[in-house]
Every structure is written in structure tokens, then in C-alpha cells.
């Protein structure tokens, strides 16, 4: 059978409902929607994965089937590029074109047009690896993906159920195997071993204080964290982590992200209702595919205190800058921080004024932050929602690994810094790796959560989700990192008028790229004012986006 025929025949098994043609869009993190309308999209993403691998002469491409923080009935699919980063932005439109082809014949035509325009050699090998989270719809969607990979003669490896960052790690490992940039063993076990060895090295002269409760959002992070713990020193041993795993039921699909998980905690600014943690207990929550993490605790007055992505960024940036200084590498390593418009204004001021580090602000989406972070020697990027990591440039890695320490103190700092380069998953935000990173830093600094919180005071803030008739009406002005609306006409002026009434007021609205909604963020000098400002801006969004 010819290539075209194979693509067409398999496509006939995964037709697109007519009313959806033209509506699919590769968003913040790939395609994401109700799982029951995703079959044809996943099939077509599989076609693109093969094309991308062939275009890159057989380098391995990853496909992850997950809807991360979304509700259980949703699912999604995204592509991972050879070094473990998100799909190159210029290819997102090809994914969208394939997804919106309105018939099997049209799909073959779009596919062939891409082969031609992108100059893809169909005789080159195509190599794809994939995985999924614990959602019930995942195995059916893997079937759709497999049909595309078979039709296009790709070599495939199905890694079954993984966290999203584990798949990113594996993609980089496969593509760097046997090179001088080898990233690690190409296996799930290799991932745990790498993290565990780095953790032990980083904790050599210190140990964690107290215990940590980890809410796993009833997603894939639960079983994977339990697996990781088997590789770490036991809590009775020096340097061992005392972890209590909660919300790790992956057998009740409806419980995924329900009243728990990082998104619930960040958006509602409260612990999961099921939490039994006492005052001062260190807690954290992962999201549904374990690529985000936020920490929190109840203070002595039983008030909920959140330590979100901004806090992890400031903690990590200050620690790494300190290690660079202590090891005698300060001149060779510029540490920079990347944030989005959702970053709390107080964190931005703290990074610039207290830490003296550079800051860049990008639109939402790890793909944007990651890219910006690679411009620093050490780029620390975190979205306020807990999604982030640290990337070390090749020259920074070289400087760290070739540096000759001049004293035992320099040598200790250097050992810890080296350990961090392995402990941190540099391909993408990784809740498990970030969890260990935070534990290492808190142990080194001797910080409790309360002391971590005291480093600066957040401006009170509120995040609201507003449902509108068509979120695509809400577009932002290029170059403002999504802080200003371009359309609907008049909306931005109305928002600015309201913001001007509040002390330290700041607010913006932007369409979500993963949910059918517009998000509104507001901060002001008091909690009540932040709430009022968010409500007023949400009302403006409702007015302009009336169904
Ligand atoms: C994804 C992206 C994140 C983004 C989040 C929310 O996270 O990877 O970068 O912050 O969606 O995006 P939006 O506001 O556009 O809906 P996840 O954890 O859901 O994959």
C-alpha cells in the first residue's frame, strides 16, 4: 500500500466531527479538550510526529497524551522536540492545519503539502516515543496515535504511563545517547537513579527538617513518587526524606485533580479539603501529570500560606547565585529569572532589588519561558502556578565541571552546584525534581516554610476564571507579555479605569490556552481590594464576552 493510501485508510477510522473542523488550535500546551472529540486530533499529531522526526533525520520525537491540570473528562496531546523541549513554535501551525483538515482526502493533501514545503525526506527514518497519564481515555487515544505511527512506518516505543517530565527526560536521553552531552540512562529507572544520586550528593553535609506531605492530585505523580522514594535514602538514614503521600488514588478516574492538586491549591489559595496537616507542617501539591508543584502550610494562627512558583524561583535563584559566589564562579555565571504576568509584583521587586538578578517577562506557557531562560548562563524560570525549572547553558556546565576550587569551602559549594545540575530536570518543569530541589535548598538554608515565606511579603492577589461565548475574542497586544488586551475593542480601557482606583492595583485578562475560559489576575495592597479588583475586571470580561 502506498504511504498516502495508508494515511488515508487509517484516517477513515478517526473522523473529525464536521462542526469541529476549523476549531482546533495547538494551544499553550498542545491540543487540549474533551477527550471524546480528540481521536482525529491525536491521529493527526501522530502524522506530524513522524514528519518532524524525518525532517530531523530520524531524531526521536516524543508524544505525550495528557490534559495535566484539566478535569478528568478532558485529555490532550503535545509533541516533545529532540532535546526534550516543547515542539518548536513554528511547527505548531502545521499541527493546527492537519487537525483542521475537513476530510481524509484533504488530510492527505495537507500532509503532502507539508512534506513538500518542509522538504521532508520520506525515506528518512521516523522515530517516536510516547506515554500517557492515568486518564481513562488515554489508552483509546494511544490507539489513535499508534494508527498514525503505523501508517507512516515509524519506529515506536510505548512507555505506557509516565509523568510528562519523565517523557521529556527520555526524549533527551535517547537523542544524546553516545554523545558528549549524554543526559542519562534511557529508562524510567535511569530517571529515578539520576535524581536519587544527585539528591544524595546535594544532601551530603545536611539533612531535611521535619516531614513533607505530598498531594499527588490523584494522578500519575502518586505512583511515580512512590517509585522515586524507593531510590532515595530512607527517612531513618541521614539525608533521607520523610514523605507522606496523599491523594494518590489513580483507580478512581473521577478523582483526578478534584478538590486537590496544584491548580486547585493555587487558584483557591487553600489546602485540599481532605488535608490533615497541622500548623507548620510542610505540604506540597503536584498537578495531574506532575509537571507543576506548589508548597504551603498553615501558620501558627491557622492561616493558609502559599509558597507558589514565584517562591520556588526566588528560593532557587538565590541559592544558585549563592553557590556560584561561594564556589568562586560568580563572574562566569550570570543567573537570570524568567517570569510571566502572573508573577506577584513583590517577587519581581525582590529578585531585582534584594537578589540583584536580571528578570525577563514572557507570555504564559513553558515554551516561552524556557526559550528565554536559555539566554542566561543559568536561567531560572517558574510560572506562578508552579511550572518551572532551571536551565544551565553549555558554557555554564563547562565552567562548573572544569572549575578548580581554591579552598575546601569552595569545593563544598561546587559539589552542591554540580549535584543540582543533575537533580534539576533541565528539559521542562518537573514536580518530582522540583520537590527534591526545594527540599535540598530548605535543608541547606535551615529554613522552615515560615522562614521561606518571610523572605518577602506577597501583594494580595486573586485569580478568577471567567466563561465567555468565545475566548478567542480576547487577544493581547504583542510585546506586552499578555498584560494588555488588544480586543475586544474598549475592554482594555475599561480595565485600566478600574485598576486606577486601587492602591498598588494591577490586573489583566487573557484567554486560557488550555481551558475554554478567560483568566483574570488582580493584585492590590489588601486582600479585600485584590478580591474587589478581580471581581470588577471579571465583570468587564463578562460584559464584553457575553454569550
Ligand atoms: C500548561 C502550560 C503552562 C501554563 C498552563 C496554564 O500547564 O504548560 O505553561 O501555565 O497550562 O495555561 P493557560 O493559562 O493558557 O490555560 P499544564 O500543567 O496544564 O500542562
TrEMBL record:
Top EC class of this enzyme: isomerase
Annotated Gene3D superfamilies: Alpha-D-Glucose-1,6-Bisphosphate, subunit A, domain 3, Alpha-D-phosphohexomutase, C-terminal domain
Cofactor: Mg(2+)
Enzyme Commission (EC) number: 5.4.2.3
Source organism superkingdom: Eukaryota
Binding site for substrate: 383-385, 510-514, 519
Signal peptide annotation: none
Phosphoacetylglucosamine mutase AMG1 domain mapped to chain residues: 190-294, 308-447
Pfam families: AMG1_II (PF21405), AMG1_III (PF21404), PGM_PMM_I (PF02878), PGM_PMM_IV (PF00408)
One Gene Ontology molecular-function label: magnesium ion binding
One GO term of the biological process aspect: carbohydrate metabolic process
UniProt catalytic activity: N-acetyl-alpha-D-glucosamine 1-phosphate = N-acetyl-D-glucosamine 6-phosphate
Active site as annotated: 68
Record keywords: Carbohydrate metabolism, Cell wall biogenesis/degradation, Isomerase, Magnesium, Metal-binding, Phosphoprotein
Domain Alpha-D-phosphohexomutase alpha/beta/alpha: 59-94, 106-178
Pathway field: Nucleotide-sugar biosynthesis; UDP-N-acetyl-alpha-D-glucosamine biosynthesis; N-acetyl-alpha-D-glucosamine 1-phosphate from alpha-D-glucosamine 6-phosphate (route I): step 2/2
Domain Alpha-D-phosphohexomutase C-terminal: 463-539
Family: Belongs to the phosphohexose mutase family.
Role: Catalyzes the conversion of GlcNAc-6-P into GlcNAc-1-P during the synthesis of uridine diphosphate/UDP-GlcNAc, which is a biosynthetic precursor of chitin and also supplies the amino sugars for N-linked oligosaccharides of glycoproteins.
The protein, known as: Phosphoacetylglucosamine mutase
